[in-house]
Structure formats: C-alpha cells, structure tokens
Amino acid sequence: MALSDIEKSFIYEYSARLLERDMLTNQLFAGSAVGRNLRSLVLGQPVRAQTFTNPFEDAISGTLRADAGATRQAARNVGEAASMMGVARTGVSTITGALRDMQEIIDKINSGELDGSSSVVQGDYNALRDKIVGTISGTDFNGISMLDSAKWGTSQIGMDGKVFIQSGPKGGFDISFHAVDTPSSGVAWADLAGADLGAEGTRANQLGYVQALASEMDSVQSMYRSKEDSLHSQELALQSQAQILDNAARLRKPSDPGMTLEKLLAELILKESGTIFDSKG
C-alpha cells in the first residue's frame, strides 16, 4: 500500500528526530568531555562546562585583531618618523639662531657699536660658525645623521638622505632630509670667517653669506615643521583606525563568545517544550 504524503512526512521528521537525539546522546554520554561536564552539572560539582566556539567567528575576529596590531605598529613607525623630523627641525632652528646672532654682530660693527678688527669680536663670530658646524655633525636620531650628508649611505639612510618608513604590511614611504652641510646656495660654512669683519668690503661679503644661508635654513626649517605636523596627523589617523579594528574584533567575538553546555541544554529544552512567546509570531 502506498504511503500518503502526510505519512511520508511524518516518517521522515520522526526519523530525523531520532537521528538527532541519537547523535546528541552519543556526544553527551559516550565517555566524552561533554558527557563528563554534563555529569558534573547534574551532580552539582564545581566543574565548568565545556564551551563550544564558532571557528568562523574566531577566524574573522583573529584577522581583525591582527590588522589592528599591524596598524598600531604602523602608527608607531609614523610617530617615530615625526620625531625624526622634529629633531632635524630643532637642529636647523639652532643653526638659524646662530646665523641671526652672526648678522647681529655685523650690524653692530656697521653701526659702530663693535670693532670688527677686535679679536674678541672675531672670536665670537667664529664660535657661532663652529656651533653651526657642530650642530650639523651632531644632529642624529638613534644613530641616523639627518643634516650631515657625509654620514649618509648606510643601512638606515640612503645616499640621497631618504629614510624608509614602514607604514603598512605591504609597504611604506620615504622621508627626505636636506644636506645642510653643503648648502644649495653655494656658500660654504667655511666661508664664514671672523677675520673678514675688519674691512668694510669683506664684511659686506660676510653679511651676504649670512643672509643667504639664513634664508635657506629658514626654508628648510619650515619644510621640516610642515612634514612633522603631517606625520603627527597621520599617526593619529592610524591610531584611530587601529581602535576601530579593535572594536570591530570585540563586537565580532565578545569576551565570552562560547556556548556552554548549560546554554545548549536550555536551548534544546526550549526547542522541545516551546516558549511563552512564539518568536515567529
């Protein structure tokens, strides 16, 4: 006798229910860790039930956390680049300050306040020049000389004064420094000589040298300041991005994402017995 559609449906659903319960019984009572947890739960023993986790959620949240870590490292690298620019800017600022003092000496000689032939005045002028040369040689960040091109061409800084900054897992960018030891104006630091302050003609040459160098150093300092501000902004943006990724990972995988055995049994009981409200309306 052929079975009706209702009878076929009943047999199928009943068989599926029996199979489901058989699989659950084997999992819970076949000497597994879950079975031991259930026994502990029934007997009231203080043993934490096994936690069931979602491997897909773990994988996604793990990727988000890894991306957040990489972004945070990139932020630190960019912040270090900003610090390098800050050190270079401070060094150039020291140089421009010394050049202003040198111009002031020349102005006072021209006004009659100082004697350009005085060895003391010439010594002060030369001391300021030596201060500039020392600043160029001594300005560095973790062993990277940023103003003296004679010290370039290492594993940290190229011959062209570029330093590579890793700002992401797949690449980064270069920051560039100026060869302050060889000014582009064509005036060498050695051209600044206190002995030339005694005569009006050579003193005028010294004034021209100082003004040309001061103008160039002002431009370099302004560029360094702009780059430093830009890098700080980039650092903050990367930090914010890392925080967003951290939040996304936490939302994707809460601190207690697993389903305990108690929750599993509760859901099975509710599935069999029903609830006060039907979630499907």
TrEMBL record:
<keyword id="KW-0282">Flagellum</keyword>
<dbReference type="Pfam" id="PF00669">
    <property type="entry name" value="Flagellin_N"/>
</dbReference>
<feature type="domain" description="Flagellin N-terminal">
    <location>
        <begin position="59"/>
        <end position="149"/>
    </location>
</feature>
<protein>
    <submittedName>
        <fullName>Flagellin</fullName>
    </submittedName>
</protein>
<dbReference type="GO" id="GO:0005198">
    <property type="term" value="F:structural molecule activity"/>
</dbReference>
<dbReference type="InterPro" id="IPR001029">
    <property type="entry name" value="Flagellin_N"/>
</dbReference>
<keyword id="KW-0966">Cell projection</keyword>
<keyword id="KW-0969">Cilium</keyword>
